[in-house]
Amino acid sequence: MPAQDFVSPDRIRAQFSAAMSLMYKQEVPLYGTLLELVSETNQQVLAERPQVAEALRWTGEIERLDQERHGAIRVGTAQELATIGRLFAVMGMQPVGYYDLSSAGVPVHSTAFRAVHEQALHISPFRVFTSLLRLELIDNLALRELAASILAQRQIFTPRALALIEQCEAHGGLNAADAEAFVNEALHTFRWHPQATVTAAQYQQLHDQHRLIADVVAFKGPHINHLTPRTLDIDAIQRGMPAKGIPPKAVIEGPPPRKQPILLRQTSFKALEEQVAFSDQASAGGSHTARFGEIEQRGAALTPKGRQLYDRLLDAARDALGEVPAQANAGRYMSLLSEQFQAFADDLGEMREQGLAYFRYFPTERGLAARDEAARPVTLEALIGAGHVHFAALVYEDFLPVSAAGIFQSNLGDEAQSDYGSNANRAAFEQALGASVQDELALYAESERRSLQACAQALNLPGL
Ligand code: OOG
Ligand code: NI
């Protein structure tokens, strides 16, 4: 088949993201309510804060905002992870970053599947935080074997999905009809199955070890456990949730409120209690809490220097609090956080001068008008000073391990604290995946470099 008949992976991803949103709205109606709140809030921010709208117009994020969301799944075996990686590759999603959650008492390690080029991200920024269960961290050998044998029996992909993945790999793409079929088939892997694959007693055993183990092992597939829209004002959402009947978690994860948002702020609402039929029951007699809702606000991607500062300030706030942030200490935690982050410049110009964040650079009309003048400025600083080049923060496309741990915990219930030591094992994760994960910082640096090159070219300069 000629390659021009193939649908671009970015379009397949956009279709898949929309289909997932539709499915999750049906499965978890509160997600639909949350989408309405996010959309109202975003409209209000865009209307009331023209500088926010302006910044999003420069980067093109304004066009992707309404369809921007991430999801999360947890798989049980290396084979499942490797195949999910191939499924995501059909949609142009690659594994980026390694997250160790064991140190936070969750027996998984994870990556984010997402598009990596700014043009692809512009078409669809859909990302999926994907965790692999680490049975090797469970010290109860009998339970470990039980879990492994249950997982070995399930097939989380439909035969047609597998065939279409192979076809895509063999031919280099999918045509429109096959792409549509692929989206429908892939959805099955992510949907909720009320029939468990285990007996009520087995479920209880798995659950008693760790609620997350039951969630991964006891069902037919890795149901999507949340889908997260992007808001422009997470504090407004957090305040607005109760009035819509959505109970938020106690604290917003990530940095404190700022004029210039950095990285990622997240809040979520508690998991639903869902009816489950165990394999020794004819009808739904049990229940399981798995799925929840989450909201995110994204800001500037930080350089290694900025990230180190972020990590240091976050640690200092948590140390000063002396306990895990929760309902009872939420107010104190937020003020400690704001206090610490006084040390993090809150002005884009200063953040750039101090090398704390990544940026995208754009030629301005004035710059373009002067591109052939002999006396025009030629260095980046002079071009910015003369208004020939505009800069905007490069948006963070990834996740944060401490925040992710907080999201896991709020969903698992605070009683589920376990200790797995600190067991990062990126090599084992990559071996299971059958590929290495990309370095997110290198991706941001490349994106920034491409924007400088494009600027130089547009302004008729040899380089910047
Ligand atoms: C994933 C939790 C992490 C995030 O946004 O940080 C996450 C999970 O609960 O499976 O989604
Ligand atoms: Ni999430």
Automatic annotation (TrEMBL):
Keywords: Dioxygenase, Iron, Oxidoreductase. It holds the Pfam family HGLS. CDD domains: VOC_YdcJ_like. It comes from the Bacteria. It is an enzyme of class 1 (oxidoreductase). Its cofactor is Fe(2+). Gene3D superfamilies: Uncharacterised protein PF07063, DUF1338. Its EC number is 1.13.11.93. InterPro entries: HGLS (IPR009770), YdcJ_bac-like (IPR047869). Belongs to the 2-oxoadipate dioxygenase/decarboxylase family. This is 2-oxoadipate dioxygenase/decarboxylase.
